[in-house]
UniProtKB/TrEMBL annotation:
GO MF annotations in UniProt: GABA-A receptor activity; GABA-gated chloride ion channel activity
Domain Neurotransmitter-gated ion-channel ligand-binding: 40-239
Designated name of the protein: Gamma-aminobutyric acid receptor subunit pi
InterPro entries: GABAA/Glycine_rcpt, GABAAp_rcpt, GABAAR_pi_TM, Neur_chan_lig-bd, Neur_chan_lig-bd_sf, Neur_channel, Neuro-gated_channel_TM_sf, Neuro_actylchol_rec
Gene Ontology, cellular component aspect: apical plasma membrane; chloride channel complex; synaptic membrane
Organism of this sequence: Sitta europaea
Subunit structure: Heteropentamer, formed by a combination of alpha (GABRA1-6), beta (GABRB1-3), gamma (GABRG1-3), delta (GABRD), epsilon (GABRE), rho (GABRR1-3), pi (GABRP) and theta (GABRQ) chains, each subunit exhibiting distinct physiological and pharmacological properties.
PANTHER family according to UniProt: NEUROTRANSMITTER GATED ION CHANNEL (PTHR18945)
Family classification: Belongs to the ligand-gated ion channel (TC 1.A.9) family. Gamma-aminobutyric acid receptor (TC 1.A.9.5) subfamily. GABRP sub-subfamily.
Segments crossing the lipid bilayer: 240-264, 270-288, 300-320, 424-443
Membrane topology: Multi-pass membrane protein
Localization (cell): Apical cell membrane; Synaptic cell membrane
Domain of life: Eukaryota
Function statement: Pi subunit of the heteropentameric ligand-gated chloride channel gated by gamma-aminobutyric acid (GABA). GABA-gated chloride channels, also named GABA(A) receptors (GABAAR), consist of five subunits arranged around a central pore and contain GABA active binding site(s) located at the alpha and beta subunit interfaces. When activated by GABA, GABAARs selectively allow the flow of chloride anions across the cell membrane down their electrochemical gradient. Pi-containing GABAARs are mostly located in peripheral tissues.
Length: 444
């Protein structure tokens, strides 16, 4: 019984002491002067609001990155979302202690230390992970070196050029910069150059693959001063196989389907018209579907739009070719009908001719020959200029002759040749256009 009372009395003596020590810590924290638990002899009088080497040389911050994932790359919003682990390392002479060990502290103790004011340039949205606790790491080394790491998911702007979509290569950046400390107070460096970035070569993206990446050290000139900046620049090349199967191959097959009409006779109007109209409607649907996925980027004239326009033009040309061939065939058929009618009339007149008419015609022709013996007119030498006519009649005669020559030049004598030449010219010209298309968008 006596021992129980003694323990209770000791507990009452201990609690006020603990309250006073917590109150003392909070007051020190309010003034910015703190001490880390277990490192009171080192950090006594430590002011977290003053950078290391305050008033002297700038603090050198060495950084490294681990790219955990790039979850999405949006062409319409022109940004990408990445989850990264950012490690920052610097030396604070106020935290030097004896020995050659390093200590990992609780992440909540970062509030007691000075840390750089690094931010992500062009970040739209960012958050730090807090499951199950805040994903931060603080490690102290005996020479005063501090390693501070944290895990962030950020959405960063990336200006994309979609003029060669889907055969495009996009260059994106991740830029780290000091917000308040200029280059007189702080300097940024990569810990090991290009080797400071890890994980990016192992990324597996849905539409892209990482071609190359490199690190840069730069400065940002603002009105308030010159601020240090680190840049990670990486190139992403789009995987074009999906678009070949989804868009390029169907559009090419539709163009080839429109050529089937060249092997159908001109008399089969429903069959040829049905093929032409069906392929045009299918091509229109394919064009609308390809643009719906990038509805917010319709201002760009993309490579896929150019190819779909080429295919649509060839399909429309095949339909126009049948219209021209059919019109020429109908014109030729209508011209044959009057010739056959005039031939029938001549045969009927020949049947009615008798011997009396033949004698009368021969006598009249003999009299005309006698009366014009002194005049010789040949059809070869006769032209509009030799005849006695007015000047405007001469002009009409010349223009009429030229118009007949022009019309006869463009008149298709054999409509069947239109399909014959189209069977060769359409595929050949389509292949040439495809070669120029691929050469331009892949190598220029």
């Amino acid at each position: 019984m006596f021992g129980r009372y003694f323990s209770i009395f000791g507990l009452y003596l201990f609690l006020p002491t603990q309250r006073n020590s917590l109150g003392h810590g909070s007051s020190l924290h309010g003034r910015g002067t703190t001490s880390l638990p277990g490192f009171e002899n080192i950090t006594t009088g430590y002011n977290k609001y003053l950078r290391p080497y305050f008033g002297g040389e700038p603090v050198q911050i060495a950084m490294s990155l681990h790219i955990a994932s790039i979850s999405s790359i949006s062409e319409s919003d022109m940004d990408y979302t990445a989850t990264i682990s950012l490690q920052q390392c610097w030396t604070d002479p106020r935290l030097v202690f004896h020995g050659n060990k390093s200590f990992t502290l609780d992440a909540r103790l970062v509030e007691l230390l000075w840390v750089p004011d690094t931010y992500i340039v062009e970040s739209k949205r960012s958050f730090q992970h807090h499951v199950t606790v805040g994903n931060r790491l603080v490690r102290l080394f005996s020479n005063g070196t501090v390693l501070y790491a944290l895990r962030i998911t950020t959405t960063v702007a990336c200006n994309t050029d979609l003029s060669k979509y889907p055969m495009d290569t996009q260059t994106c950046q991740l830029q780290l910069e000091s917000w308040g400390y200029d280059e007189n107070d702080i300097t940024f460096t990569w810990l090991r150059g290009n080797d400071s970035v890890h994980g990016i070569e192992k990324l597996r993206l849905s539409q892209y693959r990482v071609e190359r990446y490199h690190t840069l050290v730069s400065k940002s000139q603002q009105e308030t001063g010159s601020y240090p900046r680190l840049i990670l620049q990486f190139e992403l090349r789009r995987n074009v196989l999906y678009f070949i199967l989804e868009t390029y191959m169907p559009s090419t097959l539709l163009v080839m389907l429109s050529w089937v009409s060249f092997w159908i006779t001109l008399d089969s109007m429903p069959a040829r018209t049905c093929i032409g109209v069906t392929t045009m409607l299918s091509m229109t649907t394919l064009m609308i579907g390809s643009r719906s996925s990038l509805s917010k980027t319709n201002c760009f004239i993309k490579a896929i739009d150019v190819y779909l326009g080429i295919c649509f033009s060839f399909i429309f040309g095949a339909l126009v070719e049948y219209a021209v061939a059919h019109y020429s065939s109908s014109q030729k058929c209508s011209a044959k009908v009057p010739e056959e009618g005039s031939a029938n009339e001549l045969t009927e007149e020949k049947e009615e001719v008798n011997i009396t008419n033949i004698l009368n015609n021969s006598i009249s022709s003999y009299k005309q020959k006698i009366s014009f013996t002194s005049i010789e007119i040949s059809s070869d030498n006769a032209n509009c200029s030799d005849l006695t006519m007015k000047s405007h009649e001469k002009i009409k005669c010349v223009l009429r002759n030229k118009m007949h020559r022009i019309i006869s030049y463009f008149t298709i004598q054999n409509p069947g040749n239109v399909d014959h030449y189209s069977k060769l010219l359409f595929p050949l010209f389509f292949m040439v256009v495809n070669v120029f298309y691929l050469a331009y968008y892949l190598y220029f």
